[in-house]
Records
---
Amino acid sequence: MITFEGVHHSYGKRVVLRGIDLTLSERRVGIVGANGSGKSTLARMINGLISPSRGRVGVDGLDVARQGAAVRRRVGFVFPDPEAQIVMPTVAEDVDFSLRRHRLDRAERAARVREALTRFGLADHADHPAHQLSSGQKQLLALAAVLVTQPSVLVADEPTTLLDRRNAREITRLMAGLDQQVVLVTHQLELLADWDRVVVIDAGRVAADGPPQESLERYRRLMDES
């Protein structure tokens, strides 16, 4: 469960989030909003990449600001550009790197890496240069490298931005089928049609919160009015 209690955030004099109160318990939660609305700031607070100026963010009862290390073991994060997450030369090495702080023997690490690569269709690319993968494959690698650590929550901040429609649908389908709670920030509204809940952020506030059809219709009206 993810909680926001009276969360405000400012960058200097620019207020980005204003009085956010949310409890996110559903397995598949979408977050939408215009550019600059504060949605990415909200998402990045879930694993402590950004700390609120005021208020509290919690994950499974842990205070993100005070217990950041424990929270980050529970929350995996996927960025818009997978290149930002690729740190090792080959595909298998990149996934294995995520396990460096886990107390696993070599055989168990190798098994976890093989399982992750197979799960995301990258087993045949294990020894390939990671930066030479296609855009879709790089995002699959980013997901594999995060999920190999077995977090309980996955936060994905516009992970389909650089992908074509086919790859965007495939990435979203994979995330929707995960056992983890998934929080997906996206501009591609059609990807959220069958999700459990959609939160609309507008000018730093919650403008709508509910089933996808209702929330997305509210978002479209807000965009038409702006």
Note: The mean pLDDT is 94.
---
Amino acid sequence: MQPELNPTPVTVIQHPERERFEIFTADEPARFIGFLGYRVIDDTTLELQHTIISEEFSRRGFARTLVTHVLDRIRAEGGRIVPTCTYVQDYLRRFPQYGDLVASA
């Protein structure tokens, strides 16, 4: 089963200096939707710590859209994750095809 994403065009930007991925609407002017915070564990592994979506955009699938974009990017870059964010943990239970990204203990 593939995750159902919000159909609104979005842009996801990684900000290493802030240790987070941010999601914005793709329209002009772009509006901030939320972020997924992380901590760098090593060169290939990120601890995904918390997912925050602005109230204006909550409960519309933007968290799922953000996490899907982030996990797809991490996979494409050959990375791994340690999911301490409860939303990401739930996401991985619902979409086990991303389970291979979880770093072994």
Note: The helical segments are 62-76, 86-94.
---
Amino acid sequence: MQLLHATAEAVPFAKTGGLADVLGALPAAQVALGHDVLVVHPWYARLAAEPPPLWIGDVDVPFDGAQVAVGVGTLELGGVRLAFVGHPSFQRDALYGYPDDAWRFALFSRAVPTVAARLGFVPDVLHVHDWHAALLPALVRHAALLPPGFSGLPSLLTVHNAQYQGWADAADVVAWGRLPGTLAGPLALHGKGNLLHAGLRTADRVTTVSPTYARELLQPAVAYGLERAFADLGPRLVGILNGLDYQAFDPAGDAALPAGFDADDLRGKDVCRAALTRELGVDPDRPLLGVVSRLADQKGIDLLIDALPAVLAQGWNLALLGAGDPALEDALEGAFAAHPDRLGGRIGYDEGLARRIYAGADALVVPSRFEPCGLAQLIAMRYGTLPIARATGGLLDTIDDGRTGFLFAAAEAPALAAALARARAARDDREGWRAMQAAAMAARFDWARAARAYDDLYRDVVADAGTAAAPGASRAARGGAAARPEDAGS
């Protein structure tokens, strides 16, 4: 099968979060299953590609009432073909955070079919990711001036985090994409253009990155205003758990660590722990909590700050790495200064230090208010570090409470403190703790499993498209999979 992924991020080229990790791993797992895979990605100014993509020329894209020239770059990595869309609007210091973000990524979406066609690639399925590419299902269903083979193409949208949606004026969105003006209302949310909402209303299937998060997206607090659109999907919304690249994260051969280890011999983990306490200047004789996280409300870091008196009273030390909300950064730096022998860390990001915390800590704190899937807990488990996490999203789906980690329910500091106390008591039972570490290290959430689950959905959407193309069939007859956006009010 020929698969096209459209994404704003992919490891190793550009990354701000877990979206990039998925697009760095899933396409490779799909190639291993025998698929022909093309990933289309913006050509950012600071694209981490060595060697850089091979520029093969410009193509004209029908966009915003004109023909807009975009550059096309290409390369191959591990059997995955990649195409890069070049335009001056992507030549900036950061990936996002600009007033014209919706315009930029609407242009990217409109360019994807033209760029793929330039490479001679016409997919069987179009798989788009998050709001940045979520206009594509509407484009292949409704837009004119598409390359041959792209009109009516089966589409699947994966929502990695519904908090980010891509807002703009509704009339502008349809004009940019050269869509029928009648779609301005149906694709809008509360009268405003919303690119993620447009994808939810027009994609043949919608997935998200864990089964529990799929259920939670029916709740206003998690769906950020999109709960009705998610509810309207019914069985067309599916949660497929993300995976971990177990070769990229392997404590036995991780070059960032002072010593390697595995589940059969954890002596190297003790070496890592001792080295980490020296690096951060904290007391080596106390159990060590780790945190590797964005410092944001979603991640529940304020809950951890409120629970710091309990952390200290229970005898834990803390090793933290993260950046984000300036108020949280200031609060943590103040705590580091007040307790230099108990709390250590760094504001910022350092991949090597992150790995040393995963390896050297006894437990990892993940107090997220919501967590679509989460990668930190999977890495921690791989490194024999037991997660202490909220029972939400992918955290609930991957942590076996009392066996591979510790879960708590309420997004409140006392609930976190109680879970920390459970973990502290468990650590005093050395034999039981080692058994939990072994169970955590043996847990497997690999990408091959996820790739097979996506295969099942691809076959469904292709079969549905074939049914819809049969004489007398209609798109609305596809089990409700493609009811017209005009029928889907907000």
Note: The first strand starts at residue 2 and ends at 6.
